[in-house]
Automatic annotation (TrEMBL):
Superkingdom of this protein's organism: Bacteria
Region feature Disordered, mapped onto this chain: 82-132
Pfam families: DUF6009
Biased composition (Pro residues): 121-132
Protein name: Transcription factor
InterPro entries the UniProt entry points to: DUF6009 (IPR046051)
Length: 132
């Protein structure tokens, strides 16, 4: 979940790769996955679809125990707001969801009015979290 992602865990990110136009998405789910490499499109084994992923710097070190790298993957499920606007998340958003406009390498992203199902009253900014 995004709330559980620590800044230290994403400090080796070099870039975020988007597979879709994120400007039309109110939110994306993010998770940290253990992957065998620093770069490249990871395999995807969830329902729904992957919309992006993080690429790590060449200096990023693998886990000493597993030899894997922790990388963020951004995804959506079939019942998320982009495909079911009047569904479960017509308002509110999953715990691991953030506004993709607030995401940059090495930042966790934020919930905004838009990601929570409200109107976009001001352009989102990485330093502007949802009040409350």
């Amino acid at each position: 979940m995004s709330a559980l992602i620590d800044g230290d865990e994403i400090s080796e990110e070099a870039e975020l790769v988007w597979l879709e136009d994120i400007s039309i998405l109110d939110y994306v789910r993010q998770s940290l996955d253990r992957l065998p490499n620093r770069r490249g499109r990871p395999a995807y084994h969830r329902d729904g679809r992957m919309v992006g992923y993080a690429v790590l710097h060449a200096r990023a070190r693998p886990s000493r125990t597993s030899g894997t790298f922790r990388r963020r993957v951004f995804w959506l499920l079939p019942h998320d707001r982009d495909t079911a606007p009047q569904g479960l998340y017509a308002t509110g958003a999953p715990a691991e969801a953030v506004d993709p406009a607030t995401l940059t390498p090495r930042t966790k992203g934020q919930k905004t009015e838009r990601s929570e199902g409200g109107p976009l009253t001001t352009p989102p900014h990485p330093a502007t979290p949802v009040p409350g």
